[in-house]
Amino acid sequence: MWRSILVIILLAISTAPADARPRQINPIPFAHEPCSVLDGRPCTPSYCSPLEPGPCIPEIDYPYGQNLQLTIQSVPSEADRAKYRKPDHDLDTIGDLFAALRSCWSPPSDNARAGMQMSVRFSFNRDGGLVGPPRLTFATASVPAETRTTYLDAINSSLNACLPLKFTGGLGGALAGRPIAIRYVDNRELGK
Questions:
Q1: Is residue 174 helix, strand or coil?
Q2: Distance of alpha carbon 165 from alpha carbon 171, whole angstroms
Q3: What is the side-by-side order of every strand in the sheet holding 135-139?
C-alpha cells in the first residue's frame, strides 16, 4: 500500500514541468525580458529546443529581407533626407549601399511625368560594378514609350555615374551576384 502511494507521488512529481509558468510566444521580436544565465535555458533569442512545448518561433529581427529591395524617391521627405547622403567611407553595410544608391539618383528633366514609377533589377560583382545592365521589371501603366525610355536612360546614367561602388571585402563578397530591386518614384510636382 505504502509502496503504491510512494510510486504515485514520485510519478506526479516527475511529470510536473520544471518551469510552471507557460512560455508565451511573443510575435514582436526582442520584446521579451532579457534572459539570464540562471534561466536554465540558452540565452539566444533565435534558439528553439525540441523539448519545449508549443511551436518554435525563433525571434530574429531581420532589418532587411533576403531579397534586397529599395525605394528611391526623387524628392525625399524631411525625415528621410539623411538616408540620401552618400557615405564618405567604403560601403560596409546594406544601409551604406542603399544610401549610396539613393544619392546617385538624378531624375530626368525632359519628358518627365509626375507620379512615374519604374522598377529595375540588377546585381553587383564583388568589385562594385554591375554584372549586367539593369533589367526593367515594372513601369507605370499607360505611359508613352518615350517616357519609359527617358526614365530608363536616367536610371542607367545615374547608376553608371556612381560605379564602381567601393565595397569592403565582406560586403562585396556578400553582395556578389545577389539581385537588387530598386523602385524609382518621381514624386516631384511637375508643371506648376
A1: helix
A2: 11
A3: 68-73, 179-185, 117-123, 135-139
Segment 16-33 shows an average pLDDT of 50
CA gap 160, 163 in Å, rounded: 5
pLDDT over 60 (residue 74): yes
Q: Give the bridge partners for 122, in sequence order.
A: 180
What are the φ and ψ backbone dihedral angles of 148, each rounded to 5 degrees? -60, -45
| pLDDT band at 35; cut points 50, 70, 90 | low
pLDDT band at 139 (very low <50, low <70, confident <90, very high): very high
Among residues 91, 170, 153, 162, which one has the least CA distance to residue 130? 162
> What contacts 23, CB < 8 A, 6 or more positions away?
52, 53, 54
Mean pLDDT computed over every residue of the chain:
80
Q: How far apart are CA 173 and CA 165, in angstroms?
A: 13
DSSP track, 81-129: GGGGSPPSS-B-SHHHHHHHHHHH----STT--TT-EEEEEEEB-TTS-
Cell 530591386 identifies what position?
181
User: Residue 133's pLDDT is what?
Assistant: 92
Q: What is the mean pLDDT of residues 11-37?
A: 54
Cα–Cα distance for residue pair 192/184, rounded to 1 Å:
21
